[in-house]
């Protein structure tokens, strides 16, 4: 069971494991992140506030906390979906449907033979338990479609018969591998399992996995190392309490390059092995044809 939790983390932490945000010019705490870098759309509102910078026009505002310096590993994320296109319109409808847990809309996206999640077999709409707002499938779909998508050549999905490409959401996996390829010293997927991407500007790193704990530093659209010992303890604790690791409202323990260790709210965390939603058109209708993850 612990291994299942860890694979879900590797595939669905996908660090924001939620969304992305830019700091505004006013120093304050807010509940909803601002638009992210490049062209990524905003994630859903989050109870975790995002640190803000003071405004030069309001020098009387209190200065933001001074955190210890560390070496950053920035990452550039680009959403290839152009406004006004057919897929853009569909994705906006899907995001709203996921937000409202519209089982009827999402059920229409599941192929007749089901959709495969990770390494498992195809699952039908009924097996995904879409009628329950607490179904594990909802946060996975919400997380994968919250930020940018990438168009890829349709080489593997024969049932996406229209067009020569499919859309993959989110595109963290591709960006990470292109900008931070695994060093030769790492074997297999060890590199991907030991790092996550924090998507957002000035996302808090907290001392404990709690919104009430103190912030010890901030991360902004960058790659950071997973604190493996802390992760195992965190998952063990969840398991002992009969809980699952939540890909949105849970936490990811991380280590900064200066030695600091803390936790990041999962809505802002994406793992390179994040579950990815692959969409293609079947008989003129968009369908969710695959959700690879953990590979």
From TrEMBL:
Region forming the signal peptide = 1-23
Q: Which Gene3D superfamilies match?
A: SH3 Domains (2.30.30.40)
Q: Which organism is it from?
A: Desertifilum tharense IPPAS B-1220
Record-given protein name: SH3b domain-containing protein
**Which UniProt keywords are given for this protein, alphabetically ordered?**
Signal
- Give the region (Disordered) as residue ranges: 31-68
Residue ranges, compositional bias (Pro residues): 33-48, 56-67
Q: Which residues form a coiled coil?
A: none
Please name the taxonomic classification of the source: Bacteria, Bacillati, Cyanobacteriota, Cyanophyceae, Desertifilales
